[in-house]
Amino acid sequence: MSIMVQKFSVPRGTSDILPPDIPVWQDIEAKARQVIQNYGYKEIRTPIFEETELFVRSMGHSSDIVQKQMLTIASQKQESAEEAMGGLSLRPESTASIVRAYIQNSLDRKEGLSKLFYIGPMFRGERPQKGRLRQFHQIGVEAIGPDSSHPYLDAEVIALSINILKGLGLKDFQVKINTLGSEEDKANFSKWLREKLQPDIKKLCPDCQQRFERNVFRILDCKNKDCKSVVGRLEIGYGHLSRQSQGHFDSVKKALSSLGIEYEEAPCLVRGLDYYTHTVFEITDASLGSQDALGAGGRYNNLVKQLGGPQVDAIGFALGIERIILALPKHEGPAAVALTAFIIAMDESAQSKAFEILNVLRCEDIASDMSYRVASMKSQMRLADKSGAPYVVIIGEDELKRDCVTLKNMEKGSQEAVDITNNNYSSLKTKLRERD
Ligand code: AMP
């Protein structure tokens, strides 16, 4: 009787990143880290799950993420009534977690401006498609603190996101910026929008008809054709802004121009989350098709207070790594870190010596490997070749008798005997390091 063996696949909307693809990821992460650190940001790592309520309170109950995309962990064993009520969710983004960490660790008392960055996975229960996953990765920064209100900081954060992308070799992206104004300006704007949209409410898509009450701004960036034509007829301007908000936005634009940054003003760019105030921005790349945003960000001057912290301003952005990879020019990526030496034991009698040498080299930071299966010289040489190691260290009966190894230089095709009398491997190590 045959037993059916169940085969498992990665969950929908997630993917394995296999070894040949890892160098591209490492390269993006290393280059981004370098650029971010050049701007004075320090890394922070928060858990990949938090209390669901944290995300609901920060992004807003009516945001698409909270309404449709939260991946909530159904725990069988709740430890307390509090946990049973609150529940935990995988993080759909990092801003809320970082603000939580900022408040919990009283970072406001430690520094005037906390400049933080993160790189890691985020989770959203979206309908998967190209460029839209359920587990994806973001590189992001958050600048939070009493000293974070200056418009130069908006310009710094936008410039930083652009410089990360440029540093990775991307050129054909567009930067769109807008301002939502203060909380009060936002309230005026939503009142104005509702008045203007009221007569056309029936022409909006079903989603936007619901958004009319709970998240009217989202109607502005709806991709539906009918909604676009309704919105197109509105004269969206900046009449709802206070003088102070208009002044902040003007200063941000001036600072961007002084940095030579080209941008497009996009009055309909609103971003879907409740916490944004003042500057919002998005970076898109037309080559990505319908999911064209490489990254986005903005100010959130009231979130820290709303989550129980001090009244401090803040601003941040997040870039999507999978989208960056899709947008990168398709040429050979960086090579994986290769071995320096591949060791071949020609027969079983040479295996223990080969294993000893292998471990000596590894402890000396000389990347080395060997096959533990004693096979023909030809098949072991094939393995050595595949490993990419520039040197092969061969040990057989003859070498054992003469207290030496045969060192083959794979690039030159030459070989020589290297003495290892009294287990003294110093000449072997010197020769293996010659290539560095
Ligand atoms: P957001 O947090 O929605 O502003 O997203 C910031 C960036 O993260 C986007 O511009 C995308 O590059 C990336 N991103 C967001 N959601 C997804 C997703 N579901 N799959 C892949 N990348 C995403």
Structure described in brief:
The chain is of the alpha+beta class.
Q: Can you tell me about this structure?
A:
The protein is an alpha+beta fold and 436 residues long. The protein folds into three domains: 205 residues, 2-Layer Sandwich (BirA Bifunctional Protein, domain 2), CATH 3.30.930; 45 residues, no CATH class; 93 residues, 3-Layer(aba) Sandwich (Rossmann fold), CATH 3.40.50. It is 39% helix and 20% strand. Strands 1-5-6-11-10-9-7-8 form an eight-stranded mixed sheet, sandwiched between helices. The chain has a five-stranded mixed sheet with strand order 13-12-14-15-16, sandwiched between helices. Helix 1 runs antiparallel to helix 7 and helix 7 runs parallel beside helix 11. The chain is elongated, with a radius of gyration of 29 Å. It starts with 21 loop residues before the first helix and ends with a helix. The site of adenosine monophosphate has 16 residues, from strand 6, strand 10, strand 11 and helix 13.
